[in-house]
Design goal:
Rossmann fold; 234 residues; binds magnesium ion; HAD-like_sf; alpha/beta; Enolase-phosphatase E1; Transcription Termination Factor Rho, Rna-binding Domain, Chain A, Domain 1; 9 helices; binds the ligand CSCCC(=O)C(=O)COP(=O)(O)O; 2-hydroxy-3-keto-5-methylthiopentenyl-1-phosphate phosphatase activity; 10% strand
Length: 234
């Protein structure tokens, strides 16, 4: 057992941490990409889409929105307006039953055990808050959104900047040291550690993640639970 108290809050990344990279890149991203043109044709006059396109226009002034969004998708840009539009398209896919979220097998049972033990669980992903909620609502085990107390996206700040993690701890009203952040990306963990969070890298064999040398690592959430004194699923 670890000699420090278990974290009060576990903050989790999505892609590569709780959901396979292949699901995000081979299912979600293509789903949004192929429907983007039709979506814009039907929804470009809705207030949230007008706002997202206006934000994009500040990045690439005067460029056609469809071309800009496709180019941003091609380089996997983690920009809030792109993420908002992807989230809106995925919402239609989930509602139609064309999409079901894919979590690693250890994820939902372990989150359930942590939640039952009173650990606060929060998400921090580049995906929009709406998209994050959809993922939990449409799990293969049914609606699991209630496991999660807070959802953070890049509106709170970039994932590779320490200030974002300090802002998340403030928003959760806990000291940074009470939060354990889990991600597959070393640069995100380094930023979180600089803000005073405890961190652990998820090194998922299925994703081919390479363990860094700086932070503790684990192949599954059950191993995270062992290392940090959190509950185990039954
Ligand atoms: C429904 S969540 C989609 C995740 C996403 O859009 C993405 O870019 C992955 O980013 P993460 O910060 O979770 O690695
Ligand atoms: Mg990730």
């Amino acid at each position: 057992m670890p000699d420090t108290a278990p974290p009060a809050v576990v903050l989790l990344d999505i892609e590569g941490t709780i959901a396979p990279i292949s699901f995000v890149h081979e299912v979600l991203f293509p789903y949004a990409r192929t429907r983007l043109g039709g979506f814009l044709a039907r929804h470009a006059d809705e207030p949230d889409i007008v706002a997202a396109l206006a934000e994009l226009d500040q990045i690439t002034p005067g460029a056609p929105p469809l071309e800009t969004l496709l180019a941003l998708m091609d380089r996997d840009a983690k920009l809030a307006p792109l993420k908002h539009i992807q989230g809106r398209i995925w919402a239609q896919g989930f509602a139609a039953g064309a999409l079901t979220s894919d979590f690693y097998p250890d994820v939902l049972p372990t989150l359930q055990a942590w939640h039952a033990a009173g650990t606060t669980i929060a998400i921090y992903s580049s995906g929009s808050e709406q998209a994050q909620r959809l993922l939990f609502r449409h799990s293969i085990a049914g609606d699991r959104e209630s496991l999660i107390s807070a959802f953070f996206d890049t509106r709170i700040g970039p994932k590779r900047e320490a200030a974002s993690y300090a802002a998340i701890a403030r928003s959760l009203a806990v000291p940074p040291g009470a939060v354990l952040f889990l991600s597959d990306v070393e640069a995100e963990l380094t930023a979180a550690a600089a803000a005073g969070l405890a961190v652990c890298q998820l090194v998922r064999p299925a994703d081919g993640t390479i363990a860094g040398t700086t932070h503790p690592h684990a192949a599954e959430l059950t191993s995270v639970a062992r290392q940090f004194g959190l509950s185990q699923p039954e």
